[in-house]
Design goal:
Shape: globular
Largest sheet: 14 strands, antiparallel, barrel
Strand order of the largest sheet: 1-2-3-4-5-6-8-9-10-11-12-13-14-15
Radius of gyration: 18 Å
Order of helices and strands: EEEEEEEEEEEHEEEEE
Distance between the termini: 40 Å
Number of helices: 1
Length: 261
């Protein structure tokens, strides 16, 4: 018999407060992700339940959280096939093929992603992303780019982030949006600049934020505070200040020390 691997479990709750001209805008956000590997299967099959979007984009807090459950099968090394249902009435089926891996190039780490996906209530689509991390004495400089396309929208949506942080601890990410949101940093602080657009004709949102994240004495519970300023086309590019406050609960050793090179 093979030993049963631990099941990574992560749940996060965040509240986003933005001071708009017409009043305070509050958006709650729930992140939930659990994976279970089945023992005694040569090519290990994984059961997962997650609130992460199928395209793995850095979800905005204003977007609805959708719970999905399914099976993940490793077709080849670095290539996974997912199939499952989204918790709606009636249930929505989905499937995806995902390729992602890590390259370590001296002081640089490179994380590419390519993904094809389809849902029965929407359409087929694809996502592609690249993240470059540069480490120097525990300091992290990151550039992360993400694009996605869906047939029903026929628009290329994109997000670009730049992050400069002091990272003492990294949370092992399973979904690519963690790189763009800097939510893979478990213990540290830093500056995050973000730009995103609904098509390739220009940006529809800019954001600048300063984030602080620390573990509590329990070491499995983390808190995060992130003051921010947003500029959005929908609100006539006004500078709207805000703050994100949240808790992140991790189980089964999902965190590791930051890199010192």
């Amino acid at each position: 018999l093979l030993p049963v691997p631990a099941a990574p479990f992560r749940i996060g709750v965040t509240g986003e407060f933005i001071d708009r001209r017409d009043g305070l805008d509050f958006q709650p956000d729930l992140d939930f992700d659990v994976q279970l590997r089945l023992p005694n299967i040569e090519q290990r099959l994984r059961i997962f339940i997650t609130s992460v979007d199928l395209d793995e984009s850095p979800r905005d807090a204003s977007e609805d959280t959708e719970l999905r459950a399914g099976l993940r099968y490793e077709l080849r090394r670095y290539v996974n096939f997912d199939i499952g249902v989204k918790a709606e009435a009636p249930p929505v089926a989905f499937m995806s093929v995902r390729w992602a891996r890590e390259y370590h190039l001296g002081r640089w780490d490179f994380y590419p992603l390519a993904k094809l996906f389809a849902e029965t209530d929407e359409s087929i689509g694809y996502a592609a992303a690249t993240t470059f991390d540069h480490w120097s004495g525990g300091r992290l400089l990151r550039s992360s780019s993400f694009v996605k396309w869906r047939q029903d929208r026929d628009e290329m949506e994109w997000t670009q982030t730049l992050i400069h942080a002091r990272a003492r601890q990294i949370i092992v990410p399973d979904r690519y949006g963690s790189y763009l949101r800097a939510s893979d940093i478990g213990h540290g602080w830093g500056l995050r600049l973000l730009a995103s657009g609904e098509n390739m004709h220009g940006a529809s949102r800019y954001e600048a934020s300063l984030f602080f994240k620390r573990p509590t004495t329990s070491r499995w519970l983390y808190w995060v505070v992130e003051p921010l300023v947003t500029w959005e086309r929908e609100y006539a590019w006004r500078a709207d200040p805000g703050i994100r406050i949240g808790l992140d609960a991790l189980f089964w050793d999902l965190a590791r020390n930051g890199k010192h090179r």
